[in-house]
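INFO  loader      accepted 1 record
INFO  loader      residues=227
INFO  predictor   begin
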Amino acid sequence: MFSIVIPLYNEEKNILNLLNEINNLSDLYKNYEIILVDDCSNDNTLKVISSVENNKIKILKNTKNFGQSYSIEKGVANSSNKIIVTLDGDGQNDPSDIPKLMDFYLSNNEIKLIGGIRKKRKDSFIKIVSSRLANFIRSRILNDDCVDTGCSLKIFDKEIFMSLTYFDGIHRFLPALFKGHGYKTSFINVNHRERKYGISKYGTINRLVRGIRDMIKVRNTIRKRIK
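INFO  predictor   done
INFO  writer      dumping tokens
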């Protein structure tokens, strides 16, 4: 029915709890798979996930650290289902929100992407402020109707995703790209949790510079399509 794609980089202390939470979905869904993409972690992430006995899990490993977008694209490309669910591997996304998003997605045939909105974020003050500023600028320029594109919990159509021109950073612009290509999107408030172990992999300055560059790329892509 659907494939859950989870990119992982140094999440040895978070991933087992997340997988146990996802396993609770078995009471509602029988036909789903979990695709774990290890982005060349330098801790024991790969060892930990390889030790899990679960026939729903498929493990992929990058040859070097390619980043989140590459890992998501690789996971989607190797998925077996037409519906894709994406989650962060740090445990801040709550898998118990998946049924809420999935019910809405399945009951609205015109919707091709539905994303989570983190109303009560459990991040540092500087991360929240910088993220809100970036979201405001992006939504004004790209008109994607999304106030929180950084929330990794999303459900979308595999075929449409694979038809998009890939670039590093594409995962942050999926609402704009789906809408820009003529597909309807929607968003629902979801839970957000504190990171228990490890640190965030992104610096605010680095994300700002990359975000501006990628924003221009996405805007030009959408404009070319409209013309």
